[in-house]
Amino acid sequence: MIIGLVTEIKNNEHRVGLTPGGVGELVRHGHQVLVEKNAGMGSGFEDRQYSEAGATVLADKKALFDQADLIVKVKEPLESEYDYFCPGQALYTYLHLSPNLSLTRMLLEKRITGIAYETVQLNNGQLPLLAPMSEIAGRMSVQIGASLLQKYNGGMGILLGGVPGVANGEVVIIGGGVVGTNAAKMAIGLGARVTVLDVSKSRLVYLDDIFSGRIRTLICNEYNVTEAVRQADLLIGAVLIPGANAPKIVRESVVRTMKKGSVIVDVAIDQGGSIETIDRITTHDQPSYEKHGVVHYSVANIPGAVPRTSTFALESATLPYLVQIANKGVRKALLEDASLLKGLNTYAGKITCQPVAVSHGLEYTDSESLLQAEH
């Protein structure tokens, strides 16, 4: 298989889909890898390292797309990249299609096989290709929030850990999954008071157990959300429904009750955001804005700020699946791995991820039936 690795062009996105080590693994399996010039520079990898690993480095992006059977990326393609895609090509990346109708339409029109990292799912419900970035985003959400709480960044001037004789800051986390758990770890480490809300009682029992009572846990309902958010110095949105738009858990009326200079970091912005006042995607260049006296942060590629760590963490999860795809071919790899099959969002001009179809009001086609019918 010919695999193309391209440079990310999203604002301040310095991650890359493969390290030279990952390229070397694919080459050892007999595959050809084309790498766009300077693709790895943001993560500290030079073209020379890719060449030494067996890749062909190309300066011409169009030539790379024209030759590749499968494109490997980190973030979803932007509109300026749509024309590069060839009909029938495969794409392996984060797609986040539910809030993105234009990208969904492009994938359908060009009959792209779109395999989304964020919907690959194990039998136990875990999302193995999303988890590494969720861990990083969760940890960074507290780091970012702590910085924004500083007065010169627009915050009220609170130190989350407090000092002896002064109350600690209050961190409220909506969602107790991978993002929320890692946010809680960081917030506890800084000495903050931490409240985690989740709809699952069993998840809250688990969190109470692993944190040995150092956090407060609440069932996520309207009353508890309203009361907890009102007290928050830092509110973190960490809600995820795989493949679907994030539900709006915190209403604008509740945000209006927050303290002036408090901070919201919505990690769910990739899927549309879980806070009603998060009404735009921001960038690392201009990461925050103020609304109702509250600082809002809604950058869609948080882990891109630490690309070296993020790239290694991401590849450790995505590479084994990529080797399967390359060795077996896309169709066979999908049919033989139920977890990978759940990552298939578009195929042969059809939407094969039900939450994406529902979000856009388009027809859904069962992925396994579609692939079986081709044989």
Task: Give a brief rundown of this model.
Helix content is 35%, strand content 16%. It is α/β, with parallel strands linked by helices. It is built from 14 helices and 15 strands.
3D structure, described in words:
This protein has helices at residues 20-28, 47-52, 61-67, 101-109, 131-148, 178-190, 201-210, 222-231, 252-255, 307-328, 330-336, 338-341, 354-360, 367-373, and strands spanning 2-5, 32-36, 56-58, 70-72, 90-93, 113-116, 170-174, 193-198, 216-219, 234-237, 263-266, 288-291, 294-297, 344-347, 350-351. The protein is of the alpha/beta class and 375 residues long. Strands 3-2-1-4-5-6-14-15 form an 8-stranded mixed beta sheet, sandwiched between helices. Strands 9-8-7-10-11-13-12 form a 7-stranded mixed beta sheet, with helices on both faces. Helix 5 packs parallel to helix 6 and helix 10 packs across helix 11. The two termini are 20 Å apart. The model has no long low-confidence stretch (mean pLDDT 96).
Largest sheet: 8 strands, mixed
Question: What string gives the helices and strands in order?
Answer: EHEHEHEEHEHEHEHEHEHEEEHHHEEHH
- Continuous helix count: 14
The outline comes out as globular
- Distance separating the two termini: 20 Å
List the helices and strands and how they pair.
Elements: E1 2-5, H1 20-28, E2 32-36, H2 47-52, E3 56-58, H3 61-67, E4 70-72, E5 90-93, H4 101-109, E6 113-116, H5 131-148, E7 170-174, H6 178-190, E8 193-198, H7 201-210, E9 216-219, H8 222-231, E10 234-237, H9 252-255, E11 263-266, E12 288-291, E13 294-297, H10 307-328, H11 330-336, H12 338-341, E14 344-347, E15 350-351, H13 354-360, H14 367-373
Parallel strand pairs: 1-2, 1-4, 2-3, 4-5, 5-6, 7-8, 7-10, 8-9, 10-11, 11-13
Antiparallel strand pairs: 6-14, 12-13, 14-15
Helix pairs in contact: 5-6, 10-11
